[in-house]
């Protein structure tokens, strides 16, 4: 799903205009809500990736599991970041992350685990597979 080609669907899913708003955190919040897991909408800054550093329970990198939320740095401002769902480990050693606003799309990308700011786990894990999850089918 691309932010321009699927703009209306992403607006319906996330509640923000993906062309005008950095939307990775809005995507994670929307998926948590769809899965019946308390999201981060109550946070003072719910649309920032780093707000997820306050969400759920902190997880050590050696204990990461598919469905955990991972926060990475982005940009040159202390508040900037990126957030997505851990899917697994690539043969290169990088982590496969499913997220929104990854190359302006919902997609899987590889991230360096050495750059992780934090790993968080909620009350239950979201199951991830090699294809886009079924909850995206309606969007």
Quick synopsis:
The chain is of the alpha+beta class and 139 residues long.
Strand order of the largest sheet: 1-6-2-3-4-5
CATH superfamily grouping: endopeptidase domain like (from Nostoc punctiforme)
Main sheet record: 6 strands, antiparallel
CATH topology: endopeptidase fold (from Nostoc punctiforme)
Backbone structural class: alpha+beta
Q: What is the number of beta strands? A: 6
Shape: globular
> Order of helices and strands, N to C?
HHEEEEEE
Rg over C-alpha atoms, rounded to the nearest angstrom: 14 Å
User: Which percent range fits the helix content?
Assistant: 10-25%
Query: What is the first-to-last residue Cα distance?
Result: 8 Å
> What is the mean pLDDT?
90
Identify the CATH class.
Alpha Beta
- The parts where pLDDT drops under 50 for at least 5 residues are none
Task: Indicate the CATH architecture.
Answer: Alpha-Beta Complex
């Amino acid at each position: 799903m691309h932010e321009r080609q699927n703009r209306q669907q992403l607006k319906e899913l996330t509640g923000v205009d993906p062309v005008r708003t950095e939307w990775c955190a809005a995507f994670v919040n929307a998926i948590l809500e769809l899965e019946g897991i308390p999201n981060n909408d109550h946070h003072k800054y719910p649309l920032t990736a780093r707000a997820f550093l306050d969400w759920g329970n902190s997880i050590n990198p050696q204990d990461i599991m598919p469905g955990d939320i991972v926060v990475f740095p982005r940009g040159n401002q202390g508040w900037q970041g990126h957030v997505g769902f851990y899917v697994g480990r690539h043969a290169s050693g990088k982590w496969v992350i499913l997220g929104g606003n990854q190359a302006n799309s919902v997609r899987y990308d590889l991230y360096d685990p050495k750059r992780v700011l934090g790993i968080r786990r909620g009350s239950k894990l979201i199951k991830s597979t090699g294809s886009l999850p079924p909850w995206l089918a309606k969007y």
